[in-house]
Design brief:
eight-stranded parallel beta sheet; 2 domains; single chain; 15 helices; alpha/beta
Length: 401
């Protein structure tokens, strides 16, 4: 006798087929996995009672607070528990129910559809960035003062060599940054950032060809514009378009993908007593609003990548909870980028004060991120990450029954 666990419904389906079930039977049975736990906030208490009864009739359940079960007027938060197969029947039934349940049903369908999405194909200047499996974004800091490798790649020749090394080691995106955004850092003047970034992008594009993607790590629209003209493909904005109101306009005009990150405060002051009641929930709400605003300014939703901003205005517990609950961001239906490489939260956990010695901790955090849905890993240590990632994926995708 065994207790089996499966990472996905597809894996369960393959197992059932291997044990002699028919294709039809395997399809029906695999839809009983997983059991979704869907939290619904702000639902009318009357609707909550109907939802519970309908869920029970579909072999599911719904945790309803006492205020709703005692018919107190107002709104509440409930937790719906139901299998995929029964959820389909439930949402159809809810569409004919009162008290806003029809809208709740439509939102449930959208959220589940987004949550299950595992393939993203982003158009990038006539090419495609295919995010079926996690991709590695190699960090190329052309700065004198970045927290981990500041000053190492300030010359164009050294930057070119490092870019070539990272591509050989397995990076598919090179992220070029000309301003340190470590905690306490001062902003770099616009012209100086352009002077650092643009010649490097021009050179690596000219010398190394178009078989990889270049992102520019900047929150300044003019830097982004100059970088895109020089050969960059993607804009990586730590402010999520909030520090420079023209950034969304530039991204929309050039029709390129953009990474929108969450940050509380600015690099100079972001680590001065940041506070959250529930960091993952508050950051999710930030993305819902930020993405909507970007789309209103002409940015294509299908070209947005989200980054919860590990270490950017977060306490240790916030960083840990973001990684632990990263799957919650999948409800947006957008690819997730994670940057944990050598960051200080790893030092707080392990006691390692030297950033370059935090590689094992970085890989542990990256592994959790990938298992929880991250599609891009932004890293310093490309070779080590590629070996780690290849092994992790080989294990999780092994055709075992």
């Amino acid at each position: 006798m065994k207790i089996k666990e499966f990472l996905s419904r597809e894996e369960l389906g393959k197992y059932l087929l291997s044990k002699g079930n028919t294709v039809e039977g395997a399809g029906i049975l695999s839809e009983k996995y997983p059991v979704y736990l869907i939290e619904i906030e702000g639902i009318d208490t009357r609707a909550a009672n109907i939802l519970k009864q309908d869920a029970l009739s579909m072999r599911g359940d719904c945790a309803v607070p006492r205020k709703a079960s005692s018919f107190e007027k107002g709104t509440c938060t409930v937790l719906l528990m139901i299998t995929k197969r029964d959820l389909k029947r439930l949402t159809e039934k809810l569409k004919s129910q009162p008290f806003g349940l029809s809208k709740v049903a439509e939102e449930i369908e959208k959220v589940v559809r987004n949550y299950e999405r595992n393939l993203f194909e982003i158009e990038v200047k006539g090419r495609k960035l295919v995010l079926d499996k996690p991709k590695i974004m190699g960090i190329l800091n052309v700065t004198p003062d970045s927290f981990s490798d500041g000053g190492k790649y300030t010359s164009i020749d050294r930057a070119l060599k490092r870019c070539e090394e990272m591509l050989e080691e397995g990076a598919e995106i090179i992220d070029v940054g000309g301003e340190s955004t470590r905690p306490g850092s001062e902003p770099v003047p616009l012209e100086e950032e352009i002077r650092r970034v643009v010649p490097v992008i021009e050179r690596i594009r000219k010398e190394l060809g178009g078989g990889f993607f270049i992102s520019v790590d900047t929150y300044k629209s003019k830097v982004a514009e100059e970088a895109l003209n020089a050969g960059a493909d993607i804009v990586n904005d730590i402010s999520g378009f909030h520090f420079d109101e023209r950034m969304a306009e530039v991204v929309a005009r050039y029709d390129v993908p953009a990474v929108v990150m969450h940050i509380k405060g600015k690099p100079k002051d972001m680590q001065k007593n940041p506070h959250y009641t529930d960091a993952p929930t508050e950051i999710l709400q930030y993305f819902q609003k930020t993405v909507e605003e970007a789309v209103e300014k002409g940015v294509k939703r299908e070209k947005i990548i989200i980054d919860p901003g590990i270490g950017f205005g977060k306490r240790l517990i916030d960083n840990l909870c973001i990684l632990k609950r990263l799957k919650e961001f999948k409800v947006l239906g957008l690819p997730i980028l994670i940057g944990v490489s050598r960051k200080s939260f790893i030092g707080h956990v392990t006691g390692e004060e030297i950033p370059v010695k935090r590689v094992p901790g970085s890989l542990a955090a990256a592994g959790i991120a990938v298992l929880n849905g991250a599609k891009i890993l932004r890293v310093h240590d490309v070779k080590e990450t590629k070996q780690f990632l290849d092994t992790l994926l080989a294990i999780t995708e092994a055709p075992c029954s």
